[in-house]
Design goal:
The protein has 14 helices and 13 strands. It is of the alpha/beta class. It folds into 2 domains: about 170 residues, 3-Layer(aba) Sandwich (Rossmann fold); about 180 residues, Dehydroquinate synthase-like - alpha domain (Dehydroquinate synthase-like, alpha domain), CATH 1.20.1090. The longest helix is centred in the C-terminal third of the chain and has 19 residues.
Length: about 375
């Protein structure tokens, strides 16, 4: 492995794994898999057509050199690929390629690919090991860690899925250089979320970054991952209310994202709007200081993330979509608020009228 790499260990007893963050580690992926105990297996590399064009050849070569037998399976880029239809198509393709319960799935891509490939790994032959190799900020700091997999249906995002922890996560910050500007910037919504709920000092570290630079420090990515890892360790299956803190900005954000055709608004863009709405409610119900909310909003704007809800998205459509979200428990609204930067709490006092007011605030 590479010298000077950042490693975050996710301690989940027999499901524990490492997240290794280092520029250039994609070229050593095969060696990393072998050292993680996955040597000598057939590897189904799942990616999207865009990411595969940039990085699949490097990954496939690294796997072959380490003794794996990789096959490449791609889906169209975009949120629409996160569906049962594509999960079935990938599974059947893998069967035809000779994969069985001794194979390993390697997810190469952003959050869509990671969620879809993880879901395929969870159901193929009743479960295969999966290695996540995230290539976007969203996936690197958030969705590749924690074992949440799933696909979307017309009624909402991620409503079908499984908890399926990866065996290893490899984060290569160099892959960010191939992202278009919009896809690069959207991921910072998740990094800002982590800072807002658990690490106020990281807000300053994010503010010090040049939004135009693709050289995101490995240490900053690892710092985000460590926040996610500690929360997952404390509440792996989101039964204690601790992991739900990671949903800051996501209740209304997911409602907005689901209110438009998949892919029209990127995940991080919707979450940016959700964070602004959550900050509004935090001021009203949790005592968050207005200047603290304003500083977080300013940081979202610094990374070119939207702060105004388009008039073409009706409030009642957003309300209908978020009512189906998994963050509702027995019909009750579980909402994450901040009382101060770095300090989040889960409350059940938010009413539908509050949600409508918050959505209106985005106008």
């Amino acid at each position: 492995m590479l010298v000077g790499m950042s490693t975050v260990h996710v301690d989940l007893a027999e499901r524990s794994y490492d997240v290794i963050v280092e520029a250039g580690i994609l070229r050593q992926a095969g060696d990393c898999l072998r050292k993680a105990g996955l040597a000598g297996q057939r590897a189904a590399v799942i990616s999207d057509e865009t990411v595969a064009g940039h990085h699949a050849a490097t990954l496939v070569h690294a796997l072959e050199v380490a003794g794996f037998q990789p096959t490449l399976h791609t889906v169209p880029a975009g949120e629409a690929s996160k569906s049962l239809a594509h999960a079935e198509a990938l599974s059947r393709e893998m069967i035809r390629a000779g994969h069985d319960r001794k194979s390993v799935v390697v997810a190469l891509g952003g959050g869509v690919v990671g969620d879809l490939a993880g879901f395929v790994a969870a159901i193929f032959y009743r479960g295969l090991p999966v290695v996540q190799i995230p290539t976007t900020i969203v996936a690197q700091v958030d969705s590749s860690v924690g074992g949440k997999t799933g696909v979307n249906v017309a009624e909402g995002k991620n409503l079908l899925g499984a908890f399926h922890q990866p065996r290893l996560v490899l984060v290569d910050p160099a892959t960010l250089r191939t992202l278009p500007d919009r896809e690069f910037h959207e991921g910072f919504a998740e990094a800002i979320k982590h800072a807002a709920i658990r690490d106020a000092a990281m807000l300053d570290a994010l503010a010090a970054l040049d939004p135009a630079s693709r050289d995101v420090p490995a240490e900053l990515i690892a710092r985000n991952i460590a926040i996610k890892a500690r929360v997952v360790e404390a509440d792996e299956h989101e039964t204690q209310g601790i992991r739900a803190l990671l949903n800051f900005g996501h209740t209304i954000g997911h409602g907005i994202e689901a209110a438009v055709p998949y892919g029209e608004m990127l995940h991080g863009e919707a979450i940016s709007l959700g964070i602004k709405a959550a900050l509004f409610l935090s001021e009203r119900h949790a005592g968050l200081a207005p200047h603290a909310a304003a500083s977080i909003i300013s940081l979202l704007e610094r990374f070119h993330l939207p702060q105004v809800l388009p008039p073409s998205i009706p409030t009642e459509t957003v309300m209908a979509k978020l009512a189906r979200d998994k963050k509702f428990s027995g019909g009750a609204i579980r909402f994450v608020l901040l009382d101060a930067p770095g300090s989040a709490q889960l409350v059940d006092s938010i009413t539908p009228a509050d949600l409508r007011d918050a959505i209106g605030h985005l106008r």
